[in-house]
Amino acid sequence: MQIFTNLSELTDLKKKTAVAIGNFDGVHLGHKKILEYLKKTAEENDLKSVVLTFSPHPEKFFKKDKFLLIQPYKEKLNMISRFQVETAVVLCFDKKVSLLSPEQFIEKTLIDPLRCKSIVVGSNFKFGKNRKGDVNQLRKIAKKNHIKLHSIPQVSLQGETISSSKIRTLLLNGNIEKANRFLGHSYKLSGRVIKGSSRGRRIGFPTANLRPDNDIIPPGVFITESIIGSKTYPSVTNIGCCPTFNKDRTHIESYIMGLQTDLYGKRMALLILKKIRDEKTFDSPEQLQRQIEKDIRITEQYFTKQKKH
Q1: Residues taking part in catalysis
Q2: Residue 249: per-residue pLDDT
Q3: Omega into 56 within 30° of 0, i.e. cis?
Q4: What is the pLDDT of residue 90?
Q5: Residues 110 and 24 sit within 8 Å (Cβ to Cβ)
Q6: Which of 31, 128, 152, 264 could form a disulfide with 133 if both were Cys (CB 3.0 to 4.6 A apart)?
Q7: CATH of the domain spanning 186-308
Q8: 3-state helix, strand, coil in the chain (%, to 5)
């Protein structure tokens, strides 16, 4: 997938395009439906498939640090590329873009630089200054410019509409299994392994301490998979403030089964699969040690069951 960060770079578009527009934060089941439809309509009409997304996320632009992204942009683009999208355009969302009227937005981003002949959006899509444009207005603009509009209905799971905002809330509350069902994949934390306090090593459970790239860090003790290079290991991960040792900042500590190597400075990703329990305070390191042993047994049983299935 080719990635462009400036519309002016698109000087040699030989084909006309089908464009899916959206933030695609989390690339959840609803986004999956839009991206699959983009690929289908592009192939059927001999168009180039393009995703138009934004950096920063418009909500991040207006709310700064108060708005939390589900995943880093690099991870989002990596996931979008799995749908065989040919081109991604990451449009810089700045004051100038935020002030474009709905008509100006479509003209300046889709019609002129992208030679767009087909637009794919979710049915709740909003665009233009103060989000005044909706699918009905987009339909009128598209018709006037001889562009086909495909509005994809929102996806529901067990009677609940899937949205990025709901997934954010689920993750912040540590409700990982429901968040993963809405995402259609396991939530991933990624970052670099940093030096910790070595307390885990002293009680017999050396851990890798992750400094994540993510905004959202779900709290609790989880069954995880640790990805280091091309290898994946079962692991138990504690995310929280480590109350037994009176820490007050969020930390991510993973006990990785079957791995003794020093990982300091290396990149690592964690797939968060299932919550075991909330983080809690123990009266002594010995009590914590017994609880960790129990968490490890639960994790081993989980992966044994997975192998059988």
Answers
A1: 253
A2: 55
A3: yes
A4: 96
A5: no
A6: 128
A7: 2.40.30.30
A8: 35, 30, 35
